[in-house]
Amino acid sequence: MDGVFISVEVNGDAAADAALAAKLEEVCPVSIFKGTPSGVEINAEFLDECVLCGLCLDAAPDGAVTVTKLYSGETLTR
Amino acid sequence: MRFFEYEAREIVKRAGIPVTDFGFTRDAAEAKEIAARIGGPTVIKSQVLSGGRMKAGGVQFADTPEEAQTHAENVLKLEINGQMPRGILVDPKADIDQEFYVGVVWDGTAKQPVIIFSPVGGIDIEQVAEEQPDKVGRRHFSNILPFSDYIAKEVIASTGVTGSDLNKLVPIVTKLAKLFVEKDMTLAEINPLGKLKDGSFVALDAHMDMENEARGRHKALLADLGVADEETREAREATPFEIAGEAVDAMDHRGVAGNVTEFDGNLGLVIGAGGGSLTLFDAVRAQGGDPANYCEIGGNPSVNKACGLAKLVLQKPGVDKIAVMMSIVSNTRVDIVARGVIKACLELNMDPAEKIAIFRIPGAWEDEGFLILDKYGVEYADRSVSLHEAARRAVEKIGAAA
């Protein structure tokens, strides 16, 4: 999902993982992720608040979360 | 924040400086009782935060308690400079031999308090300074080190006061200087300080302004005086623009976008960082610019808060461009502020490159911030460009746009 400056994607099976969703909600300091029983939802209104801390990348399996800086095209993933 | 005279007198009294046996009331009948207790001629003084009371009829003299009541009734109904009185002060009409002036004020240039003393009181000290400069003594002192009596003695003696008067005045001036520091005042003034026929001194009027930011340190005093938390006691009411600025600051807990103050210029300012706001505002003025506002942004505000402030300023009537400037920041991220101000432009369908005259915020995450500014074509500057040069560039662009 895209903001003006930041895009965040949660890929494939990871997006439907309720436990991962809860973890992402817990670690994100600016509330971009919302954990639900059916998986993770993105709070679009907070996308541009992303501080590029990388905690979501650390919390998720490799390649599950991708953060893109829309102003430079640089992609952050693990 | 400014105190009413009756409050300022109480503060002076608590500091151990002699005051008259005054009374404060909101009721004319009670004014009569106070006058009867005082027993003699009295002065009825309107309690407003505005000057010009005497000219407006807000100060009346009474010879009897009945007359005091009549005057009180009239003064309580009298609007002065748009203000209705908080109440009235009933004061004994003192038997004065001579009027003196003593004040302590914060000198922002010297960054120290300064005592101003004159044996010519009862009129504006500015007038005395102009007409009888040798009758005005000034002396700076440290607000960190303990205050010593000799400082008071020096400033009084410099105006030619000697002997018994000098000895009696030293403790009064000393107490006022200590009060100024201990109570975080920006102004503590007694004018006139009356010398009575018996040779004693008494404060006949007092003005006190407390640093707004210090209110939290003096809750007990303010509660004793009956100053409510919601009373701003500013020189004027906040404008809708300023109230909207407070709402922006309150929208979330992250960072600060505060002290939004309205001016009538065409260059909007999003400025801040450790005193940087004041420096930058002055820099814009020094470069011939005409600020539309003052504000203080910092402490790592959210994108949303930076955006809200920038939108508020951009939408202010008469604003052609905004200048986004700070001194070097360590606790505010450059990229977050950049996102906020650019987002504000985009949400208002404005071109960031055209509306942001300059973005000069060096510091934390500046490389990331500059990438964002590059993408939108906004002119930016790093720490190699001084605050004054950044202000000059912004003013130059406004000039070119006008």
UniProtKB/TrEMBL annotation, chain A:
Q: Which InterPro entries match?
A: 4Fe4S_Fe-S-bd
Q: Which part of the chain is the 4Fe-4S ferredoxin-type domain?
A: 38-70
Query: Could you identify this protein by its name?
Result: Unannotated protein
Name the species this protein comes from. freshwater metagenome
Lineage here is:
unclassified sequences, metagenomes, ecological metagenomes
From TrEMBL, chain B:
Give start-end of the signal peptide: none
Q: What InterPro entries is this protein classified in?
A: ATP-grasp, ATP-grasp_succ-CoA_synth-type, ATP_grasp_subdomain_1, Succ_CoA_ligase-like_bsu, Succinyl-CoA_synth-like
Asked if the keyword Transmembrane belongs to this entry, the reply reads: no
**GO cellular component term, pick one:** succinate-CoA ligase complex
Keyword annotations of the record:
Ligase, Nucleotide-binding
Any Pfam family the entry gives: ATP-grasp_2
- Ranges where the ATP-grasp domain occurs: 9-219
SUPFAM superfamilies cross-referenced by the UniProt entry: Glutathione synthetase ATP-binding domain-like, Succinyl-CoA synthetase domains
List, in alphabetical order, the GO biological process terms annotated in this UniProt record: succinyl-CoA metabolic process; tricarboxylic acid cycle
GO terms (molecular function) for this protein are: ATP binding; metal ion binding; succinate-CoA ligase (ADP-forming) activity
Protein name per Swiss-Prot or TrEMBL:
Unannotated protein
